[in-house]
Each structure stands twice: as C-alpha cells, then as structure tokens.
Amino acid sequence: YRATVLLLDQTGGADRQYLLSFRDLTEAHRLERMRSDFVANASHELRTPLASLSGFIETLRGPARNDEAARDNFLEIMQKQAERMARLIDDLLSLSRIEMKAHIAVKDQVDLTTVLNHVADSMRPLAAGLDVVIEQDIDPGPIKVLGDRDELTQVFQNLVENACKYGQSGKRIIIDLKQNSEGVRATVQDFGPGIPDEHIPRLTERFYRVNVETSRAQKGTGLGLAIVKHILTRHRARLIVRSRVGEGSSFTVVFGPQRT
Ligand code: ADP
C-alpha cells in the first residue's frame, strides 16, 4: 500500500488536521508487471524469426554463396520467417487497437446470422486446404446483438480458424447460433484432439500455446484467443470453453439478453 499524508490545516496551532489516504498498489504493480512481461514476450517472439533471418543471410553471403540448391531452400525458409514476423505484428497491432477502444461502448445493432454466414464462407478456402468441412447450424435471422461488426467478425474468424487448424484434417467443424429468452449463444465446435483441462484457464493469455510446435506449424502466434477475450470483454459477452481430450473442443460466445 502507498499511504499519502496531506496536511490540511497549515495555520499551526494544536489541532492540525491530516488526511491519510491509502491506495492499493498491488493491482497497479500487477498491471505494470503484466505490461513489462508482454513487452518482453513480444520482443522475444519477434527476435526469434529475426535471428534466424540474420543467420541465413550470413550463410548465403558466406559458405552457401555458390550453392544453388541450398540457396533456394534457405530463401524459402526466410520467406516463411518474414511472413511469421508480419503475422505477429498484425496481431500485436490488432490487440493494441482493440485495447484503445476498450472503454468506448459498442453501439451498433449487429446481425450475428450475417456475421457467422459470412465468416463460414470466407473461411471455406482455408478449411478446404486443411481438409476440414465447415457445417452451419444457424437459426434464421436476424439475431441481433449490440456490438461492433468488425470486431465480432474477428472473434468468429479466430475461433473458426483455430477449429480448422487444430481440429484435424478429414473432420468437420460446426458453427451453431441460437437465440432464446436468456440470450444468444454462438458455438464453434471441432472434433480434434481436444485440450487438456489444465491449459483451459490460460488459453486467452497472450502468447500462450498448448503445443508450441503444432501452433508454429499451423502459423499460430498465440495471440488469437487474447484478441477474442479483449473483444468479448468490450461486448460484455462471455467465452465458455469445453474440451475433452480425444473428442474435441467447443468455444461458445454468450451474449446476455438483448434490448431491442
Ligand atoms: P494460435 O495463434 O497459436 O492459434 P490462439 O491464442 O488462437 O493462438 O490459441 C492458443 C492455443 O490454444 C493454440 O496455440 C492451441 O494450442 C490451443 N487451441 C486453440 N484452439 C484450439 C482448438 N480448437 N483445439 C485444440 N487446441 C486449440
């Protein structure tokens, strides 16, 4: 705690008055700590592909100067590393844009049937490339929630992308949207390897990945679900994650009853 003492009455005399105020610094310290951890993690994540790029440049200018086969191979790896850095930067910028808007209330009526149908259509090429079929079980709309259309699109794009990436090829995923008197629920379900229980509470932490190798291979940055969490907080919506190892996972976004 930090205690601040203010002298209220400076006229002297016997009855001086003091105002004593305490402020809880643990929360402030925690936030500060989170911020500096984040900067350290982000720098590390960007440094890794950069170090690899520098290494390859050095090799190409030196030992591999005249080795054509090695050059093609190295250039391909370098391109992938550069793309990885670009993805990281895009995700970091996304996160910072969303954070800047965190205190501005969402105000548009967004029809989720349109958003989800649009996301399903736009993700089909990626799904097909991973040999995953997207199925839709979407109530006929409109199903409106108060929100920001672009941000909600990003939420469902991230969830569907994860379901496709981690849901295993040759399988299907289901996008489900339902409305009842308690509110609106949108679920993205996959039948992939599932997520062990101990990881679930940490999934929305920045840079948290259950399996770093798989995630890297799937072009993951570890920021997707952190972005989802930030957007949903601004929308006062909840994310419910259910998963069973060997059976699959479902990510449900729950919006409370909507005022119309
Ligand atoms: P990434 O960019 O690595 O995909 P996310 O923040 O979107 O990062 O997800 C964090 C981690 O959660 C992923 O790296 C992956 O290990 C795990 N994960 C997310 N969605 C699923 C899913 N549907 N099935 C299994 N694991 C998942």
TrEMBL record:
Signal peptide: none annotated. It is found in: Cell membrane. The keyword Kinase applies. Keywords: ATP-binding, Cell membrane, Kinase, Membrane, Nucleotide-binding, Phosphate transport, Phosphoprotein, Transferase, Transmembrane, Transmembrane helix, Transport, Two-component regulatory system. One of its GO terms (biological process) is phosphate ion transport. GO terms for cellular component: plasma membrane. Residues 41-259 form the Histidine kinase domain. Its EC number is 2.7.13.3. One of its GO terms (molecular function) is ATP binding. The keyword Cell inner membrane does not apply. It catalyses: ATP + protein L-histidine = ADP + protein N-phospho-L-histidine. Member of the two-component regulatory system PhoR/PhoB involved in the phosphate regulon genes expression. PhoR may function as a membrane-associated protein kinase that phosphorylates PhoB in response to environmental signals. This is Phosphate regulon sensor protein PhoR.
